[in-house]
Design goal:
The complex is a heterodimer.
Chain A (H helix, E strand, L loop, with lengths): L2 H40 L3 E6 L5 H14 L12 E6 L15 H13 L3 E4 L7 H7 L2 H8 L2 E2 L7 E5 L8 E5 H4 L3 E5 L1 E5 L3 E3 L1 H4 L8 H5 L2 H11 L4 E10 L12 E10 L2 H11 L8 H8 L11 E6 L1
Helix pairs in contact in A: 2-3, 3-5, 9-11
Chain B lengths: L3 H23 L13 H4 L2 H11 L7 H13 L3 H4 L2 H13 L8 H7 L2 H14 L5 H4 L1 H28 L5 H15 L11 H13 L7 H6 L1 H10 L4 E5 L9 H5 L5 E2 L4 E2 L9 H5 L5 E5 L12 H4 L13 H19 L20 H7 L5 H5 L5 E3 L12 E3 L12 H5 L10 H4 L5 E5 L5 H5 L5 H5 L7 E9 L5 E9 L9 H5 L8 E5 L9
Helix pairs in contact in B: 1-10, 3-8, 8-14, 8-18, 10-12
The chains are: A alpha/beta, B mainly alpha.
Bound molecules: iron/sulfur cluster (SF4) (2 copies).
Chain lengths: 314, 530
Amino acid sequence: MSFGKLFPRRDFIVKILCIAAGMLAGGLTRPFFRTIQAQNRTDGSTIAVITGKSLSRDSITSMVESGFRQIGGIDRFIKKGMKVVIKPNIAWNSTPDKAHNTNPDLVEAVARMCVRRGASVTIFDRTVNSARLTYRRSGILQAAQNAGASIEYVDSGRYKDVRVPDGVYVDSLPVYSGILDADFVINMPIAKHHSSSRLTLAMKNLMGVIGGNRGYYHGDIHSSIVDFAKTVKSDLVILDAIRILTAHGPNGGTPADVKELHTIVMGTNPVTVDAFAATLFNIQPASLRFLKIAAREGMGEINIDKMKILRAAV
Amino acid sequence: MKHRRWFYIRAAVQVCCWFAFITLVVSTRDPIEDGYLYGLFPRLSLHLGIATSIAARAVLAAFLPGLAVLALSLAFGRFFCSTVCPLGATIDASDKIIARRKGALKPEIARAGRGIKYIVLVVSLILALAGVQAAGIIDPLSLSLRVYSTVVYPFFDHLAKLAFDGLLPIPGLGAAVGPLYGFLTDTVLDFNPIVFHNAGAVMLLLILILLLSLWARRFWCRYLCPLGALLALAGGFGMLRRTVDALKCVNCLRCERDCRMGAIHDRGLATIHGECVQCFECLKSCEHDAISFHAVSPFASGRADATAAESSSITAVPERPAISRRALIAGTAASLALIPGFRLNAARRADFSEIIRPPGSLPEHEFLDACIRCGACMKACPTNALHPSFLESGLEGVYTPRLIPRIGWCEKNCVLCTEVCPTGAIKKLRMGDKETTVIGTAYFLKDLCIPWAEGRECVVCEEVCPTLTKSIKFREETVPNKKGGSVRVKLPYVLEDICIGCGICENKCPVRGSAAIRVRTRKAEVPSAG
Ligand code: SF4
Ligand code: SF4
């Protein structure tokens, strides 16, 4: 073995190392920068977890008030004259006790606080069941009226194609223009079991403002959910775990499948909120594939130990 | 001329009735607390009442309003046709365009033709006796409710939507009409345009009826309408009658020319009472105020005030309509010919039926007898699931409702169609019972179903299934994928005992064209051994 033969080989190795280092650096910085972006916008790793005593409207209202206090007061988010969109989960023609749709008293309490701040509030979701019946039976119609907010029936002609930044599964998605035109989006999911994604929480809730072929997204539901969250911003997430559905979701279930937790989770990053919400079902956040992908993509903290959790009981 | 205000009052009443009818049609949708009102108009038809009671072998109290109409006709004659009947109003309106001023029919034919409607009535009732509900197809009230619900309403709904689609994007204007659009969708419009299968076949009958006016005004009412025949029989005894003062009459024949029913003859002096619909057009036409309407003994002659001198010149015309023997014989013969025609119906063999009926429907045979084809259920359905069938369930099933899941599914927590059905062809369901009411059973077409055929995951049908513990389940298996390899994937299958056949799976199935999961009619009951 002679030195002369080794030399070019060493050169070769160095080259490879350089390339590897470059790749590594690139690989590290990409998510790193995006994490920073996400954090700048939201300070996402802080969440508030509020537990109340009962299902009563008063209890729910004080939960919301306490939640806003924990995360810095409503004034931090809602300004006078803002166009606020509340996106609950109201997909199913069911009464609130079934835990298929976001609790109407919760939606009402949030909407009322925004209206009192001088914002104009619109509430909608793309229902799966008949829209008119669903809005009524879910209690959302009444909630909106009580709070002085307006409802909108999703119009199939009003979707705009939006590019997905660094899409995992798709490059662009049709997004409902009602949500694109909003100044502030409050994502209000209900936490429940789901047949394909295991749980449906804040990130999956955004599917309700995405048009197009539902079946296509179900082809890889976890990546799709990540793409939804990349495309549609949630300025604030208020997750309803007042009643949760633990099996036969998203729209079935016997009374035994419904658990009363009297809990809401508030935060500005849907990924973090979802990770915490998974623990309410005794599910490891990292075992949910959509959360794992989201963490890999640097979209938010899913490690419970690294979150700042502000707890309160009212 | 002096009394022409009666004409305008009558016309105003007609317009009001028409609006009431339209209001009921438009508001036949969620929310509905009590469905009675939405079937009010068909309930006014005694023809439907008698035929349906005969066909269903039960006296249907639903049609009491029809008896009230009959009672009123004994007092006021055939007023119903010129005021309440929505088909009459529609014909009157279109006659302004279609009808020619001068009757194109020869007078003898025009006279003899009046008998046809009695034949139609007889045929309709005999068919009912044989268990064939033809009455609903031709009765003016179920016909108009059906046409307005499944053709006219959707037409104007689409039209409005098109207009707003054009207006809303215009800057400035959009903001102004936006709230109006919101208001209209909240009250009358459907924000998802609805469309009915076989709407053309529904419309065709109305178009034919309207075109008949090319030969005479209100051709349908004069010669064909079975309800008109019934009311003519009663109205012949009506006490409110047209009378002519022969001393004032100059025989100008204006009234005879203007009468929409051709009820005036004998140089303006005589009236066929069962044909006069009390529209008061003649009051408007007469420039010499020779005509008046007042109470006359029901048994008086048709020429109340004709002078003795005139009476000698009266030709033999039937002044009070009656079913002639010939009409009876012709009607019976026609029915005998029609009965087997209607009965030739594959759907009668329950095991062949492909028709999915609304939830709560009577068993197929009884349903065919009781349904008056009014379309109220179709208009009420919030998912646009119910459609008029045409020949799919045979001649006998023409215009009966069927559920087409690919267009709309049977919504959970909805019993609207059962609420509005006027005859009980769809039995009222309580919300709780609805959850377990089986209307069909789903099955997979594995050549189309994405996981089975392509080895890709898809759970849409399971996701939307509304049964409490889900009628669609999965088993994980290894299947060949499209590239020739193999993948592990969750394969769906149906639990037939839980499935209620609501069809939302078929509706939402993402496969293009016809779905990979479909609903067929409920399984025929297997007779249990012993
Ligand atoms: S019960 Fe079903 S078929 Fe009847 S109106 Fe409701 S959704 Fe339509
Ligand atoms: S089933 Fe429908 S079409 Fe038939 S009578 Fe009842 S409401 Fe009318």
